[in-house]
Batch of 3 targets.
Target 1
Amino acid sequence: MWKIRPRGGKGRILVGHGLDHDLDRLQLEYPSSMIRDTAKYPPLMKTSKLSNSLKYLTQAYLGYDVHVGIQDPYEDCVATMRLYTRMRYQKHKIEAYPLAADAHNRSNQVAWRQNEFERMSPDEMLSISRSDYYCWCLDSLA
């Protein structure tokens, strides 16, 4: 298994659709924090947490068809980058508090707080809820 390591400078974000399969076939490992997979990005997934096809995402979010005739890898790359760019530049309120996905915030729901959670109303629990995914709009701030 090969590991991708930067030789100095900044690491590169790897963008694709269904990258697990591609990286597995190439026998490569890439830091998960640097992967932007349109098949696994929660806002682009079905409510059942299954991924949508690239063909569907391109039609729904970009308004054109891919895979008309033969499947073209270049066309797939362009569509995936357009999806990523569109999601990256979405305008919405950025929360002032840390995300649940942040490493230092992952273990804040320890067992000793269970009683506290059981006494909370649904509205109180919603008010302390945090997003569990990294929003791609934060890539544009880096």
Target 2
Amino acid sequence: MVPPTVRAEQPGYRRLASALREQIRAQTWDEDEPLPTDGELEKEHRVSRQTVRRAYLELVNEGLVYRVPGRGTFVTPSRLRYHRPFETVDDLLSLSEDTELEVVEALAGTYDDRAAAQLQLTTRLMYGMRFVRRHQGVVFCATDVYLPLAVGQVLEDEATFLEPGLKTTRTVIGALADHGIQISGAEQSMTARAADELTAPRLGCSVGHPLLHVERLYVDASGRPVEWAVSDFLPEHYTHRLRLGRRSMPSPSLTAAPHPPKGTPE
């Protein structure tokens, strides 16, 4: 039974989603056990069918559950889920807590036109590396990293970045921080793309498989670009969730007054 919630300030579907989310985290249901049906939740919580569906949709979008027509709603197996908020650079640094990086192409000198433009380079000298990232043994992301020459040289003593196949919990921005290069912010752009002949084998998917494509440009306190990271995520193993709000509406002017009727002296 899903316990009722008392956060009346939230919409009904969010209160229900929150209750279900807590039950999932408490492992109330086995991974092969269906969750309560829409009708059961409707009666138990005295909410509309639409409220139940919106609650389940929120959990589906988070990757916590999946729905099978004719069978029901099930908890997504933990090995296929990766949930971590990325709102600050510190959140990105915390990837080292529960994911593992495996080097695909070691850190070395390279050149890429787009990377040079992003990093605002005036020469063809830069460093690059390729890696995949795993959560509980499952690959969910493939990343290409590009660094200005001086920044890349700083990481030449990072042994785990220098040979294909090596694994580490380190992040590139974490390694840079340890060498005194502090990341103060990042610009991010996202789009959808299809896996190509290069990306598909790294992610273990077929060519043409849909991917979430994310590009991040990291800068230091002076605004100088220090890293450009291009990542492709498998949507079945990774969810990017963003909550949007509205700006406060402007207050009406206290000095404005209606025009007086015709013939009325001002």
Target 3
Amino acid sequence: MLLQASLEKSGPQKLEQIWTNMLDNEYVGAARISNTGYETFAQMGLVDGSQYLAKLGATEAIQMLEGRSAINPNVIGSNSFYAMYFEQEQKWMNVSVGGGHPSMREETNPARLAELNDTRQVRMERQQKATQFHEDDQHRSITRSPFTASIDGVNDRTQAPTRLADIGPGHRDYALLQQVSAGVSAIDAQAGRTPDESSERLVASAMNLARQNNLDRVDHVALSTQTVQHPAGYTVFVVQGALNDPAHLRASMPTDEAVRTPVGQSLQQLEIATVDRQQAALQSQQQEMDNRSREAPAMRMA
């Protein structure tokens, strides 16, 4: 709204100046706050400017308390209430997790659907453009937007991590990180290696591997033994259960690929896989609720 108002009133040069200020994070964003407030009233007037700043403040407060990663195009909203897009059915469902019991209902408001579809399209374009790097640059994780004034400097655990250090106690993937790190540390120790950046990339890749294959935990990280086709260590395994248990669950990938994939890329894929898993669980729950609602009339008729 502010950018549109500045373009209409003062032209493209003023718009560029205001946009540059909005990206200024120096001095914890203090200059940005002051300049934005001044330009808001100058470009929008007292009434519209006051309404805009009030809405902006409320949005930043919600982001600080309930902020959700803005990467996944199919999940939009806060932590406790968000919209989830089901690609197969091509519909949006509103998900509420208040009280710890998820509930869903289909979004049918045309204006809200248009807003969600626009946001989804923007995020998909961001993901596509994030891959348009020089062929020698493998660091393709999506860059986070500048901090808003209210959350600048705050360690927001709801944002998708880009480093292993971002996954601390209280993060939903902290237990998985600890399990995989222990396994990779054991591999390094057995080989007489000091943990390094390759170890970190292996940890991130193994975490993503486990999540992609729906493992609930990782009890072991192991390398393959020598075979006729491949040397020892060619493949890395993540295992849920005892190694000698025929019923254990496991997943594997080439070790070389695991240690070459950037940490940020693996963690981004981990975030998407986590949301996809939640989406599948909610879809299953919705199907169960639909089945119960169909069974209830039949039971009454009987």
